[in-house]
Amino acid sequence: EDPSLERHFKGHRDAVTSVDFSRAKKQLVSGSMDSSLMIWSMKPQMRAYRFVGHKDAVMCVHFSPSGHLVASGSRDKTVRLWIPSIKGESTVFKAHTATVRSVHFSSDGQSLVTASDDKTVKVWTVHRQKFLFSLSQHINWVRCARFSPDGRLIVSSSDDKTIKLWDKTSRECIHSFCEHGGFVNHVDFHPSGNCIAAGGTDSTVKLWDVRMNRLLQHYQGNSVVNSLSFHPSGNYLVTASSDSTLKILDLLEGRLLYTLHGHQGPATCVAFSRDGDFFVSGGSDEQVMVWKTNFDTDYGDVVKPQKYGSSVDGTHGTGSEMDCGIHHKKTQTQDSDRTHEQQEEETSLANTLEHILGQLDVLTQTVSILEQRLTLTEDKLKECLENQQKIIQNKTN
Fold first, then answer.
1. Is residue 309 part of a domain?
2. Is residue 196 domain-resident?
3. I want to staple 266 with a disulfide (CB 3.0 to 4.6 A). Which of 83, 242, 248, 379 is the partner?
4. CATH code at 95?
5. Residues with Cβ < 8 Å from 378, sequence gap 6 or more?
6. Neighbouring C-beta atoms of residue 154, cutoff 10 Å
7. How far apart are CA 360 and CA 128, in angstroms?
8. What are the tens digits of pLDDT across the range 375-397?
9. What are the protein's UniProt keywords (predicted)?
């Protein structure tokens, strides 16, 4: 069955720049050139929340792994962390000296990586938003930065036409990929962490093996690629292009599967849900669209190496091998070794831990908000005292 448009959301007053699903698919977030974020509920008839705080266009948004925080970056040079509830409270910090193009939480939710037009990539702690370090070898705007699934690597893409792979511990650039013929708008890690995919203004999508630093696949399209997202199985990739289309690539067979039309004007952003059942797209037409994936649920046991030929619609897979070395599905033999009770206990424990982590996120954020309010109050008190002192001095003079 083909992917189908499930619903679309209208509420933004300018182009949508970034979209993301919460972990449980209950909410999705969108950022816009209208300087606002919107939190949309996947439940029918539930109202949306508009978050206002940024003083300029919101360029990027991302849900924390627990779904209890949303990070946003803006042309106002700041990053905000929001609690996605009706109050819409946030903490703010000046992250860069120019537009913030990208925000991304690490998989443990403890760190945040940001990328900016000031040509740097920066890493922060989520708790108290403490600056950790900066990566600064790009020589032009940095469009995108992402943590690897295990958090040990960072990948960044830039208008200097390079993609850089960084070691988070040593803070060194361990490789630069220079094969793109234009600005590189978006880059992300394969779910296995062994590959990266990038798209840009040269209308191509390229996939590299980050262990061997070699090109695995190359897709030539007809229009600028603005955004891309891996399906959690690792077998598919969805892209958003300036020709208003979304394209789904089959990475196992190295070919284009679907070209989807929905947006009027450039499709600017796209993201799969955490389980891959849905994906969400945004466009310059101010619309947010939710699509049902409708893929066969049996994604295959292993990503097998195989040779690729040409595909349809002006897209070509190069004759290279794709082997990210992942097992997507447990075999029945493995499953039968574990009892039903053990599985239930593990699920219950995982849910409890996730809930605790989520509550810690909210508590941390609440403390940060209170700290900011106290600082503001202290500043106002100091200002009042200074004014009083000036009045007294004037009277005595």
1. no
2. yes
3. 242
4. 2.130.10.10
5. none
6. 25
7. 12
8. 666 667 777 777 877 777 777 76
9. Coiled coil, Repeat, WD repeat
Q: Does the residue 306 lie in any domain?
A: no
> For residue 41, what is the DSSP state?
E
Residues 245 and 105 in one domain: yes
- The stretches of the chain forming alpha helices (DSSP H) are 332-336, 340-396
Taking the CA atoms of residue 231, residue 235, residue 240 and residue 242 in that order, the dihedral angle to the nearest 10 degrees is 170
Domain of 147 in residue numbering reads as 4-294
3-class state of residue 336 by DSSP? helix
pLDDT 10s digits, 159-201: 999 999 999 999 999 999 998 999 999 999 999 999 999 999 9
Alpha carbon distance, N-terminus to C-terminus of the chain: 85
Domain count, the chain: 2
Indicate the residue among 277, 294, 311 that finishes a domain: 294
What gap in Å lies between CA 43 and CA 271, rounded to an integer?
Answer: 19
pLDDT given for residue 394 in this prediction? 78
Residue type, 269: C
Count Cβ atoms within 10 A of the Cβ of residue 278 and give its class: 0-12 exposed, 13-18 middle, 19 or more buried.
Answer: buried
- Cβ-contact 66, 27 below 8 angstroms: no
Give the pLDDT score at 305.
32
Report the chain's C-alpha Rg in angstroms.
Answer: 22
